[in-house]
Amino acid sequence: xxxxxxxxxxxxxxxxxxxxxxxxxxxxxxxxxxxxxxxxxxxxxxxxxxxxxxxxxxxxxxxxxxxxxxxxxxxxxxxxxxxxxxxxxxxxxxxxxxxxxxxxxxxxxxxxxxxxxxxxxxxxxxxxxxxxxxxxxxxxxxxxxxxxxxxxxxxxxxxxxxxxxxxxxxxxxxxxxxxxxxxxxxxxxxxxxxxxxxxxxxxxxxxxxxxxxxxxxxxxxxxxxxxxxxxxxxxxxxxxxxxxxxxxxxxxxxxxxxxxxxxxxxxxxxxxxxxxxxxxxxxxxxxxxxxxxxxxxxxxxxxxxxxxx
Length: 309
Description:
Low-confidence stretches: 266-272
Oligomer: single chain
Order of helices and strands: HHHHHHHH
């Protein structure tokens, strides 16, 4: 091996060869191994001694190589530990400063990231708020599940109309907000017209029912008066028809005029369980002849009133 080559510039294999070359060279070892090839058997004392001498020469060289290798390994281990210790010593000089600079950079990076995340959160909150306002505007048509009165719907229309759609508030969602306002107002106005019609119909039905109730009450009052008058007439007729017991005459009372009894009302036809109500009969006659319920009621009353002979 070239003696001019420094160990630190050698490869690992080269350094191992260099360390063990101090024992014996490779050429001498090959020569020594070939020296005893001729010994093939031990048959007597001379051949035994020759085999023993050759083996001892090989053993001596082997032990020398092992001792040299062990020494080289121990030196390498000590060198390895020394290198590690020196590495730690040198790193201890510069590592604190590197870590200080790294901490400064990390704090700066963390601040930038926190600022970035805060901007993202603020943007998300802004978009969510705008979308919530637009959704609330659209949901105005579902107020009270569509059962609001016309007055309540009118108030809602006024509130929506008074809601300004400004770019400073809705930003890039301004067109969406304008569309929502337009659609909501159109829907609310339809609902308002429908509520007015519904309330007008309810008022018409209420008035008709009140009128029918009054007509029924009037009829019942007339029937009651007729029954009372008939009862009085029947009682007077029975009194006149009874036999008079002989008594001492008393001064005669002034003549009593018996009113002419009214004929009994025409019998009312009894219906079965399927008989329609009075209101249904009156409504049926009114719709069939295209007259008011009051006039239909008068017609039905006339059917029960006997015609004078």
